[in-house]
């Protein structure tokens, strides 16, 4: 029987973000701002725009109270001050944050190995056994129409899929930096596997790049276990998705927006430039 349409999303920010030190010794990476909002808020807003009602943010031990404060603190002192000054219109952005969705912040399970699959595995107790869910890496931003809506639209057409991932065409100069998608069936756009950071362009199976936007079914948790570590002894989400592709269809859909990563300072600045263009 097909799984129910997703109403929940898991957003991960549970790494040490060493490329952003020293700022990330104090705040989580996805709390770095674009304009007046942190990166995490844009990812949450993408979920809400796609129809998600419940969001689980997976953070570090140090990051958890910061996210809990940001998404739930009513800021009564700020409200009172603005009210006394007749400037309550400035508080509207805070109201919007507090009413975005049902947000739960958890810590990554310390018993799990390092790797981008471990935060998703940590959220398993908060997800339903009969419902698909969305998984997002918080350092990936989509400008324009969000991928969450694209994934859910695809799921409504193909509820039998084991998983659905979004992809973006990228120039060959950067294929060695990302996971490149190999298709099992080009007509059906189903996944065979993902080649991580091919050393030469000719080793890439396509020009389609995979990144942190997935619609997953609970079946993925059979593969997100400590004994299934891969490269560098890490637990990889794409490894689990590839295993799902061996037992059924994993669909690949192209993003209807523009994907940019904020995972390092150089690409963060590129994303900020794109943000400024949109705000101009």
Topology readout:
Elements lengths: L7 E6 L19 E2 L2 E2 H11 L4 E6 L4 H9 L3 H10 L6 H7 L3 E6 L10 H5 L10 E5 L2 E5 L2 H11 L5 E7 L9 E7 L4 E7 L11 E9 L20 H9 L4 E5 L2 E5 L3 H15 L1
Parallel strand pairs: 1-4, 1-6, 4-5, 8-12
Antiparallel strand pairs: 2-3, 6-11, 7-13, 8-11, 9-10, 9-11
| CATH architecture annotation name | Alpha-Beta Complex
Count of helices? Answer: 8
Give the averaged pLDDT, no decimals.
94
Number of domains: 1
Identify the CATH homologous superfamily. Answer: Spore Coat Polysaccharide Biosynthesis Protein SpsA, Chain A
| CATH C-level label | Alpha Beta
Mass-distribution shape:
globular
Strand content bin: 25-35%
Rg to the nearest angstrom? 19 Å
The gist of it:
28% of the residues lie in helices and 26% in strands.
Q: What does it look like?
A:
The protein is of the alpha/beta class. The chain has a single domain (8-279), classed as Spore Coat Polysaccharide Biosynthesis Protein SpsA, Chain A, CATH 3.90.550.10. Helix content is 28%, strand content 26%. The strands form 3 sheets. Strands 1, 4, 5, 6, 8, 9, 10, 11 and 12 form a 9-stranded mixed β-sheet that branches. Strands 2-3 form a two-stranded antiparallel sheet. The radius of gyration is 19 Å and the shape is globular. The model has no long low-confidence stretch (mean pLDDT 94).
